[in-house]
Design a protein that fits this description.
- This protein is of the alpha/beta class.
- It is built from 3 helices and 10 strands.
- The protein has a 5-stranded mixed β-barrel. It has a two-stranded parallel ribbon with strand order 7-9.
- Helix 1 packs antiparallel against helix 3.
Length: about 230
């Protein structure tokens, strides 16, 4: 064995631990991306499972949002929520227009009317009578301190308790994403924008990086350690 001076041993030890920690981190990222791909695959399978059936609201709301096709009728209720999202149309800044609607059972639901580019003006919401969409889970986003959490206007995330208080009626926990939107609104895609295969590809890249770091750590150990 090669004897290392004390100072060299500290360097040796810290470098080895850095390689091992980096390998663990990249392996964790590989697992995370693989899980995201699996989640997207399940999402697409659930989406396709309801392709040939159309339910009618509010009867279909007895179950949790499951991406089924639905027809909705109701009256607009309160002010729209403009959820920040700038990645739909060539990276331009814009918002998802989420309008509360009162259904025939007296309850309310958020309806995604579509994506609106900054500077464009959408027509006021009209009553819905048989409009088709998808019954989707509520948009819930991770936000940093200082983000706009609100129940109306332009916001980064929805303040659901405040929205329920403002509407004054029971609010279903989900969003109906309309299949069609009048210009200048653009229909919001109900399916994920990144295919599962891309996540699997990212997972493979992180896994190969992790294996490379482990290989480097092994070579580093074989160079010698203090005795």
């Amino acid at each position: 064995m090669i004897r290392l001076p004390r100072v060299a041993w500290y360097f040796y030890s810290s470098t080895l631990w850095a390689l091992l920690l980096a390998a663990m981190l990249t392996f964790g990222l590989a697992v995370w991306q693989w899980q995201r791909g699996a989640d997207k695959a399940r999402l697409i399978a659930r989406f396709a499972a309801h392709a040939d059936r159309v339910a009618t609201l509010p009867a279909a709301m007895a179950a949790l949002p499951d991406m089924r096709r639905v027809r909705i009728g109701g009256q607009p209720l309160g002010a729209a929520l403009l959820l920040e999202n700038s990645l739909l149309d060539d990276g331009r800044a814009g918002v998802r227009v989420l309008q509360p609607y009162r259904l025939t059972d007296g309850r309310a639901v958020l309806v995604d009317r579509g994506w609106l580019a900054d500077g464009a003006v959408a027509a006021p919401p009209r009553a819905l009578d048989g409009a088709e969409g998808r019954w989707m889970p509520s948009p819930r986003r991770f936000t940093l301190p200082g983000a706009a959490l609100a129940a109306a206007g332009r916001l980064d995330a929805i303040d659901w308790p405040a929205l329920r208080r403002a509407l004054g009626v029971p609010l279903h926990d989900g969003v109906v994403v309309l299949a069609q939107a009048p210009a200048p609104l653009v229909p919001w895609p109900a399916l994920p924008d990144i295919a599962p295969e891309r996540h699997y590809g990212y997972a493979l890249q992180w896994l190969l990086m992790s294996l490379g770091l482990l290989f480097a750590a092994g070579r580093f150990v074989r160079r010698g350690r203090p005795s």
